[in-house]
Amino acid sequence: MADGYHHGNLRQALIDAGIKIINESGEEALSLRKAAAACNVSHAAPYAHFKDKDELLEAIKKSVTDKFTEDLEDAVKNAGSADEALIAMGRAYISFFSRNPDYFMFLFGKQNISAHLQMNKEDKEDYPPFLLLRKYYKKHLKENGIKLSSEEQEIELIKTWAIVHGMASIACMKGVNTSFDWNEPDVRLIT
Amino acid sequence: MADGYHHGNLRQALIDAGIKIINESGEEALSLRKAAAACNVSHAAPYAHFKDKDELLEAIKKSVTDKFTEDLEDAVKNAGSADEALIAMGRAYISFFSRNPDYFMFLFGKQNISAHLQMNKEDKEDYPPFLLLRKYYKKHLKENGIKLSSEEQEIELIKTWAIVHGMASIACMKGVNTSFDWNEPDVRLIT
DNA sequence: CTCTAATCTTGACAGTGTCAAGTTTGGAGT
DNA sequence: ACTCCAAACTTGACACTGTCAAGATTAGAG
Q1: Are A98 and A182 in contact (CB under 8 A)?
Q2: Residue A102 near residue A26, CB atoms below 8 Å
Q3: Interface of B with A in 15-44 (CB under 8 A)
Q4: Which one of B14, B90, B98, B139 counts the least CB within 10 Å of its CB?
């Protein structure tokens, strides 16, 4: 079933091969033909499963985003309070991209973030990591008895996201050495 | 001089043509051959001025970064206090990338930021926008009579940069609609 | 006025994404 | 059990890419 004319599970195999190539040699190095070759399949075989190179790329992004979201959820699991959860999430966020800087460019560079998430334009912010942030931020407001207008909440939410996302971005700039250990980010950076 | 065998100023012409192509069709669309064609020059002519495609890309990044730095410096000019300067800078930072989202990916995606800035590894943070930030941050500390340890300063500095840079990054994510006007960023987002 | 070194052209090569046309085959419907 | 179709895959081709080698041109130093 795996070595006949039909591969059996080429779609997933191409995604896995793609991730492996990106991990080993960067996004630049990924070509449809190489991914196909890695699956022992002819150069045009991928077109049975993906309309485009972009469509393969989006599938890979989806896969990486899932892994990222899992990391964030794991970080939140052992948190006692919402405040602890938010900090743990921030550190996990930065740590994830610090450990895999290529993924940062891959996920946020180039294309719109919307593509690999099937966002509909009405439902604006269904980016899973952002959903998680929103959830624990609201919990944090409740636990600490803080009352904010929804507009003010929105601002605080974006600010929180921005600082963590900005940290991750900076951590991924190899040229800008900041003497911080981004793998185990200083708590003071986030709070 | 401009239409003979020798172009006269091909190097700069290639940079300009490259920027134009990126502006009109995105980074993907830029090829050495197209840039060469835009300068009415054969496909291998660029190799007299750039060793690589990457070397052209770096030259273009340098050019864009210069424009970006100019914007920040302009924003700071009319500020009365350091506090005002910092806010104006933050807004200009976000506004610049909000107006040219392609540049964000172009400058910060893919390659190390270090390459197009000729950073030496000892002198870590000579990224011009960051230098500007540091300058006005120190002025802010002095004007307000705030005393911080240099370590604490470093943390605050990175946090400030991160929040603004994160905002810019978020503003460039077309999929994540946040209902803010990033062109004229809300002051509350930065402070 | 000469000649060298920088600049540019021409031609070639391997690698890329993509399409069109043909081949194989699992599996549904009889 | 047999047929046959649609999905999966192959083969071959095309235009385009970055890069290099070899040659042509020419500006400008001497």
Answers
A1: yes
A2: yes
A3: 27-28
A4: B139
